[in-house]
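User: Please look over both lines:
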Amino acid sequence: MATEIYRDAWGIPHLRAGSAAELAHAQGLVTARDRAWQLEVERHRAQGTSASFLGESALSWDRFARRARLDDTARRCFADLERREPETARWVRAYVDGVNAGLADGTAPEFARTGLTPGRWEPWTPLGVWLATHILFAGFPAKLWREQVAAHLDADAIGLFATDGPGTSGSNGWLVSGERTVTGQAVIAGDPHRWIEDPGVYQQIHLSCPEFDVVGLAVPGVPGIAHFGHTGTVAWAITNAMADYQDLYRERLRRTGAGVEALGPDGVWRRAARHTETVEVAGEDPVEVEVIETGRGPVIIGGPEGLDGDPGDPSDVPVAISLRYPPRVTGDLGFGALLPLLRARRVADVDRAFDRWAEPVNVVQAADTEGDVLHRVAGRVPRRAAANSLRVVPAWQPGHEWQGCHVSPRAGLTDGVAVMANQRGPSGPLGVEFAPPHRADRIAALLAGRERWSAADMPALHTDTHLASASPLLDHLGALDDLTPEAAALRDRLLGWDRRMDAGSADAALYAAVRAAVVRRLAAHPAFAGLTTPPAYPEVLQPWLALVPRVGFALEHLLRAGELYGIDRPAAVRAAIEDVALRPPAGVWGDTHRLAPWRALEPERPYDEPGLSGDHDCVLCTSGVPGLTDRAARGPAARYVWDLARREDSRWVVPLGASGVPGSPHHRDQLPLWLAGDLVPVVTDWARLKKETDV
């Protein structure tokens, strides 16, 4: 049969072909037509060549990508895939062939603006895109932050700042089994929290061939549907497990006449791989990057001459820091799970597919029409010393080697429900820092409030704005006395606030203003002075090392700690509310809490930034950075409701639209629905779709 491309009313592609390979080709083709600019940006990021057209602002990422060996790791993993799973490798090649065919027709306006010509995708490029997208998911730079805290305060202070940091992505997800639904069949719902990008990080798509018929959210540049899918008889979804599976090693390096050597845990100096690469920078001179790899992994910070201001090393010997991450060690990125997921018919099939999952490490939920359910962790987490998970460890000392992998934990349901929201759940033994329990507790409480649920009920949970993490600050406010009349009135108003971060709420705006003022005062205290200027580490790692965001996201812990290095917290809260009482925000929360998507290239015609409801610890997780900005760059990158009773009753939405082409009618047409908490129907009836073309 000919490969057919259809569209629904929202421009979402529905593809039908005679085989899985033909379908992969069509998926690559339509993705390139819809999102040519996005695909090229991702290819260049994976290769470490994005500064060649984006300029100096992209140089830090390119340096990191080169030094971390992302493209080389993708090549290795694809070569391993060809050896172990040739059918999957051919399927990936078919997708790449489709991308190249689609890029040949690319007309995205950004190409003309930058002078960029679409380049050629290689068979391993999707693996590179996947790796570049997720290399920072496990938050290994948090270990650099802990080194800073231990060096300038003490090791006990590390726990005070423990929360999901500013660079970490999370998600909500919940499974309601058939015993708790009106249909007697399960419902799975949720929303992945990631950087909101334009074009979006998820692509709504429908893939159909004689082997399978699946709707779901694909990652542009990667074949299949990895994270969120519904085959008609089984559905699955994931959240970030917050597992720790990447290590940082402090290396001792020395130059020799033959190159560079690294000191190993056995006390022997061994030759490290070394070469130089040239990074082209638009409008600037090219930059040379020295790439070094030891027996632990690629060196991503420093070199044989060390780095000024590097903390934590007890000697005067120059050091560098290497990164060890599973795909670099094993040659497996987990792409062997992708085809089995598409072919899944039952929960057992999904379970077996996720046994082959590698990175990132996720919590998975699945349910099928037979009544089976699944709640497990999937991914590869190495076994090693506890110190590896906490801090940067010395490469020259024994005891920090990897010793195989953990068995993936599993969990059950409670009263017919399972909730995943990056809390310390089934993945607890595999991680160090997890999200506060507020989102998970709130979802569980809402689900407990009704005996039976339907798919149509789920948007009420997606959009819940209750902020439980406000309690510590409000408790401090409630204990204050002798305030000025203006501050006392503000305190009383906040104590009576319903704790909902609604866009139209003036009280939410007042609370956020007081919170920001407290964060800034704590961050400015002399006790934290040593944390205000991080070492000269690469810019791409700096979000994990900035003091104000760290204080902002850990405010609960800092306010509740028994003692905080001599900081008078009641005085800081008093000064903050007095400041805000003198200059209160004039409007509502949505006036400053606005959507600020990341774009590789700013549009020629600026878009309005709509006001948002929600906050970092709300179920409606739209994250600004308390104390720094209310603008939200992170939030629900999609919302989904998978109904196992009738797939046609499933719903989904993305923040902007199905098309990545500015000016397209489907570039931003889902935004009003996303803002309102509404969802788009999932259409699987081909008679209700409009045929676009045969390929």
